[in-house]
Design a protein that fits this description.
By secondary structure, the protein is α+β, with helices and mostly antiparallel strands. The protein is about 45% helix and about 20% strand. It is built from 10 helices and 8 strands.
Length: about 290
């Protein structure tokens, strides 16, 4: 694939993805899409479908419903409010679309998620011990910053594939002279793979930029701004495989121990002592879960 600085079509495609990300809950502005892409909406839809296996409209609808499922699963926000937040004007239309996507009404999906959460709680704490050690976390704000990222899709438990994508990103950053001792690397986890199918679960390997780049990011590398956000910060020591169980514990006891409303933003992971030669068991990861 040619560099985007020599490929205006790729540059416009990346701008389209950024626009869709930023306006997910809004009505599609066809004129704006055409302005970004320099194509008719009909033609850009054909190109988009060839790349994503779904049209722009279906892509947006799917992501809206997946975001709604996250709210239903991890919060007690009312169903009508969730419908409005993700871009549906009417609860009835939202409920119909949600049931078609997940095979359950929003109310049933929420109750099923609650039952699963209680089952995990029982598995972790079978005796319901009142002296159980509660989740340890800190409330922290992350400031505004810009970051370079490469978006990937796939099973978040496929560690080999994740490492391969990670190495591709690291090699690129090193070749561009962007890595230093003070560099801050992170992964932005956008989707919950229990809600999104594995082919569409998105994560982004990223590097916080110390200064603006003096070149246009090539291929599918992109730059994005992080706006100041409040987080519940958890610290995990161990392999990426073991972090799966750590996340289960966090969300299982979220409403009991954390008692903060989740915010509509990605989860961030920062690797404090990442080294290609160290053992996975000694890896320390700070997990930032966005809260309102």
């Amino acid at each position: 694939m040619r560099n985007s600085e020599n490929n205006p079509q790729l540059t416009r495609y990346k701008k389209l993805l950024a626009y869709l990300d930023d306006h997910l809950s809004e009505e599609i502005n066809i004129e704006k899409v055409e302005e970004i892409c320099h194509y008719s909406y009909r033609n850009i839809n054909r190109i988009f479908e060839a790349i994503h296996n779904e049209t722009i409209g279906k892509y947006i609808k799917r992501l809206r419903l997946e975001k709604a499922a996250q709210f239903l699963k991890y919060s007690d926000v009312g169903i009508s409010q969730i419908a409005y937040q993700v871009g549906f004007d009417e609860r009835a239309a939202f409920s119909k679309a949600f049931k078609k996507r997940y095979g359950k009404s929003p109310k049933h999906y929420r109750s099923s998620s609650e039952a699963i959460r209680k089952e995990i709680q029982k598995r972790i704490d079978p005796e319901g011990d009142p002296q159980r050690q509660k989740l340890k976390f800190e409330i922290e704000y992350l400031p505004d910053f810009e970051y370079l990222f490469l978006e990937c899709r796939g099973n978040l438990q496929d560690i080999d594939a994740i490492y391969a994508h990670w190495q591709t990103f690291i090699d690129f950053a090193k070749n561009k002279g962007l890595i230093s001792q003070d560099s801050i690397l992170m992964t932005e986890i956008i989707d919950d793979e229990e809600i999104s199918d594995q082919l569409n679960s998105r994560y982004r390997h990223a590097l916080i930029l110390e200064k603006p780049l003096d070149f246009e990011p090539p291929e599918l590398y992109r730059i994005k701004s992080h706006n100041r956000q409040k987080y519940a910060k958890f610290t995990h020591q161990g392999s990426p495989q073991s972090s799966v169980h750590f996340y289960q514990k966090i969300y299982a006891f979220w409403m009991v121990d954390v008692q903060h409303e989740l915010a509509d933003a990605p989860v961030l992971e920062f690797y404090l002592n990442f080294d290609e030669n160290q053992s996975d068991d000694s890896l320390i990861t700070e997990i930032y879960i966005p809260i309102a």
